[in-house]
Design goal:
2 copies of one chain form a homodimer. In chain A, 60% of the residues lie in helices and 13% in strands. The first copy, chain A, is α+β, with helices and mostly antiparallel strands and 111 residues long. The longest helix of chain A is centred in the C-terminal third of the chain and has 22 residues, at 85-106. The first copy, chain A, binds a DNA duplex (30 and 30 nucleotides) through residues 1-6, 25, 27, 42-44, 47, 52-63, 74, 76-79.
Chain lengths: 111, 111
DNA sequence: TTCATTAATCGTATATTTGCGATATAAGAT
DNA sequence: ATCTTATATCGCAAATATACGATTAATGAA
């Protein structure tokens, strides 16, 4: 892949893709599910639930945090994470704007 | 990455992740946008619009098709694609089920 | 201070994705 | 039958992602 072409697309397309990318691994879906259920959760609890090594879970958490989907802060020697519902809302709205509006017009299949 | 762990997660988690993965590249978002606007579209028109080589676009279309997000059929020497709104609907519903319900309860941030 | 616990980061191996040119395929046109 | 056009597929190179063990850092407990 000589050169990266992602920059050639609109910011909105890139943002939406980045959001989807953060959700594109079952481990991260599972992490979000746990966080959604418990509202907040320390890292160790997530590690206990997932079939992955601690370092791998930490890496997935970092990606979710970088994508802005979760927040995290340190509580003593632990790390407490929770879903950033605001960012979540923004992206689901953008997603619906992009496709669901058009859906109403084009509901009929063509192929 | 010695072994793949994706299989260790629930089917729903895997399905949702696979859907998100199909959306995780701006080129594929752009393709879906074009298809949504025009309802149906032949491959060449998409190639003209995107800043990518024909073979690369064809590959992205294949991924979207494999993920079930678009349908395609051959019309003479061309390929006509369109969005599979039904599959789209299914996944957006699943997505909302997983997170939006819980959101109502947990709207307050914790971190 | 020393030890134990928790989690982030580093280094590394392997898998997957992305991208392109070249080639193959298949239909319609001449 | 040959040529043109449209698109899929192949083969390859480079970039990214995934996973883990080992290490580091930072806090609280003894």
């Amino acid at each position: 892949m000589a050169i990266h072409k992602k920059e050639s697309f609109t910011q909105k397309e890139q943002d939406l893709a980045a959001f989807a990318k953060a959700l594109s691994h079952p481990a991260r879906i599972a992490i979000l599910k746990v966080l959604a259920q418990r509202n907040e959760c320390i890292c160790g609890e997530i590690v206990d639930v997932l079939p992955l090594a601690q370092s791998t879970v930490s890496q997935h958490l970092k990606e979710l945090k970088n994508a802005g989907l979760i927040d995290g802060n340190i509580v003593g020697p632990r790390s407490c994470y929770c879903i950033n519902w605001k960012a979540f809302e923004k992206f689901t709205v953008d997603f619906n704007l992009l496709f669901n509006k058009l859906k109403v017009q084009n509901e009929k299949a063509c192929c």
